[in-house]
From TrEMBL:
Keyword tags: Membrane, Transmembrane, Transmembrane helix
Statement: the UniProt record of this protein carries the keyword Transmembrane: yes
Domain of life: Bacteria
Ranges that cross the membrane: 75-96, 117-134, 146-165
Keyword Transmembrane helix: yes
Protein name per its UniProtKB record: Uncharacterized protein
Amino acid sequence: MSEHRWERERAAWVLARAGHRPGARRRGEKLAVVARRNDRYEAGAGDAGFAEVTTRPLLYRVIFREEGAANTAGWALLALIGVMVVAVLAGPALIISRAAYGTWWVMVRKWGRMMPGPYLLIAAVLGAVAWLVLSTTGLEGGVLLAARYVAFQVVGGVAWAAWLVRANGWAAVARKQKQSKQRIAPIVVETEAPAVPVEVDNSSHQERDDEPVGIAPIVIEVETEVGHEPEHKEGA
């Protein structure tokens, strides 16, 4: 079972702000897939056998943006050229960004929720160090160009990791934890002091209980033979 990293909350946050951006919508769908997969694992149902991410990746959208074999081939060629250009100009930076993001992602249970601030701070420090080194060493020619390229990749990669934190919805985790840490006012229940028992004087009742209680006589009429008056009997 994989550990939960607030995928449900992050997916809702990303999808709510995706709008008409397919890339953001795809990231939200992937997070939602992970959240549902974790729920199925907890329920003992295992993984699903069908795809749940409906938004196509970027290359697919670029290549198949127009119908027709000729259009598809032309866009595929342009996509290939674009991938090669990005790999040369920013390939190392993308790798560094994924590595920096993944390191914190793995250690999130120990280090806490991911935030873009530390990445931006590290990128600023690295940028300042790179500028100081390049301006004081007196490098020239190809060596200077290579050093600038390396510095750009490192600084840009760490800064891009900060964007990945934002793009993957970690702001929702920050908001959730902030709400959970809010103090709840204690509930004070005021209790009243017990009432003082009232003493009842039973002396008069006790004296009355000792006295005999008079019972009125009971009169019973008994019918007799004709010509005789009814007899009256008294009973206690």
